[in-house]
């Protein structure tokens, strides 16, 4: 059996990925992402277009001093020289050389319609531009990759011309011809057929660069590899122009885990989840929870039947071991839970739910509460408090310590005389009993929940100074039965954090402030529980 050719992983997050709407990377961001890509183990990092984008010019200048790449080489991206000129005196081409990148990737027209309409030159001059630019850069000691723009459309329109563009580039010394589905409109079978034809016609080293406009970029990339492409181009998290590029993380995981092709250095793939999420932080694009392999939901199980099988063998409902990509299995607790889901969730949270009565009672309580509008899926902290309270009622465990008892609370919101829109303030008063005795506290806030939070802390901090480390970080309200308008039941999810941990609690009620209060009080109780503050009540 002949050995399969080695595959080269070519990342274009910093160039094509940065073409995504809403994404803007600073030079520091680019350097940080390049380090992550190198940790992942990609072979080539396309850093941007020096000479066209000042930030990219600066990136290459700083990369030369600051990046110590262990696996990757840098590629500078740019276009062939302008029509009617010479590569050696073309400012854009010289900027590619000045970048000092060992690899230069040239975007070239391979679609005759683009040559005449977009470039506004003749097919012959386009061929001369390709040959001249490639030869010049190769003579300067650079490896040249030719990104054949609109290749698949070009081939279907005029096969001979598209092929001639590749042949001219290869003859001038290009190492690789990357076939681009620039408009992302082709389906995997077409991509595979055309790649196979080009391999047959040229025997050249081919790359594949797919956009995701049909939702098939990953599938087309894999199909192209099966057909003989040896360089896979893509971006982290599938960032890119319009609907994005092939998600490199998914492509690489599929190649390694489904096709047994080694594309990353040992240990690289197990870094995939960490790196995909770290890069989301840098790009400020929220991670996509349903992203294959590395998404937060990729190995998360909600249905009771799934959990009951997983308890016996996780492989029964998972296509791969999540640790292969550095991800984790998670269980969700909801109305769809059976006893198995509840028990596994308990295990995840370190709660002993082995008692059958406790397990059934908690399962029933979860279902009943979900029916009322609670959701435990995103509110692990409320689930834990529920388990502990039920366990206590059944005489099977310690209750949540009685840190404080609420006598009453009140909140008013008003505008001051002469105040305009946005000037409303809230004032809250809480009456509590703590270990220190009965206490009344009043505080102001920019809204009712903020004021209640402040009043609660004012009342509690003398007894529990640890509360000073807790912070309310997120507050989400959802109307559960919108048809009732302002009468509807509301659900509040509230996230509290201390130094290093965050947890979510849920409150439900027809009154949004009352629902918020429930989530607020449980958020503080959970925080105190995990800071192991002894009850002083
Ligand atoms: C498929 C892709 O994603 S390729 C990457 C695309 N990325 C970008 O465009 C981002 C960076 N681009 C830029 O900063 C600017 O567009 C620049 C600096 C490259 C060019 O700016 P300008 O000189 O103002 O030209 P403009 O953007 O209006 O038009 C592009 C020019 O490049 C020419 N061009 C397009 N493709 C090629 C090519 N493969 N080879 C040579 N010239 C090309 C066009 O014909 C047009 O020429 P014209 O100025 O004579 O009309
Ligand atoms: C080169 C490139 O990004 C494309 O053709 O899509």
Automatic annotation (TrEMBL):
SUPFAM superfamilies to which the protein is assigned, alphabetical: 2-isopropylmalate synthase LeuA, allosteric (dimerisation) domain, Aldolase
Family: Belongs to the alpha-IPM synthase/homocitrate synthase family.
Catalytic activities: pyruvate + acetyl-CoA + H2O = (3R)-citramalate + CoA + H(+)
Source organism superkingdom: Bacteria
Classification via InterPro entries: 2-isopropylmalate_synth_dimer, AIPM/Hcit_synth_CS, Aldolase_TIM, Citramal_synthase, LeuA/HCS_post-cat, LeuA_allosteric_dom_sf, PYR_CT
Gene coding for it: cimA
Keywords, sorted A to Z: Amino-acid biosynthesis, Branched-chain amino acid biosynthesis, Isoleucine biosynthesis, Transferase
Residue ranges annotated for the Pyruvate carboxyltransferase domain, each copy included: 7-270
EC number: 2.3.3.21
Protein name: Citramalate synthase
Protein biosynthesis listed as a keyword: no
Pfam entry (one): LeuA_dimer
Pathway membership: Amino-acid biosynthesis; L-isoleucine biosynthesis; 2-oxobutanoate from pyruvate: step 1/3
Lyase keyword on record: no
